[in-house]
User: What shape does this take?
Amino acid sequence: MLFRSFDVSMLNSIPNTTIFSPSYFIGLKKALGTAIYMCESLAVVRYPRGGELYCPEDYGEESIDYDIYGNKECKNLLITYGRLFSYACRAKEMLEEIGIEICILKLCKIRPINGEAVEFASNFENVWFFEEGIKNGGIARNFSDLLQRTKFNGIYHIKAINDEFVKQMSVSEALAMLKLDSKGMFDVITKNLGENQTENEKKT
Assistant: This one.
């Protein structure tokens, strides 16, 4: 199957496992070095086949734990990891064109999740986690559990693969079908924000 659905949830169930999921070559180099020379137990580095995807010019060098891209003071946060970060950046640009500002939290190490990243996410009103993997046992669910232990009072959305197999198709086709590409992220976020606004209007 061209589309990786189950590796994260499977690895996530193994005790004392560190999982890195860089988006670019510089992050891959750092993750491999850390996994080989600094991790004492099982360490895994996930990286998609092929060349590098889109990277914004104003994005800095990829770190080991997590990166923040965009306005930290806005109300909306998109969380993702791996190659989906590239699609998230495109979605961010599309949202800005219609006046919606969003910040992106990119997890470079998805297990264990850095506590500072969770605390950062707790400051936002709307949080979306887009994950290229099965929802059950995935990182989005882990992040949700950690977020509930903070002061977070916002709305948390998970967009991942439901309990099903993804049919054989190209990666781009699969991401589009699952609404995990740029347009899909744009559509999901605008739909959710519209629903939130409608719900607030009913209350007033």
Q: What stands out?
A: Residues 18 and 43 are 5 Å apart (CA to CA). The longest helix spans residues 182-203. The beta strands are 18-20, 43-45, 66-69, 76-81, 103-107, 109-111, 126-134, 155-161. The chain is about 40% helix and 20% strand.
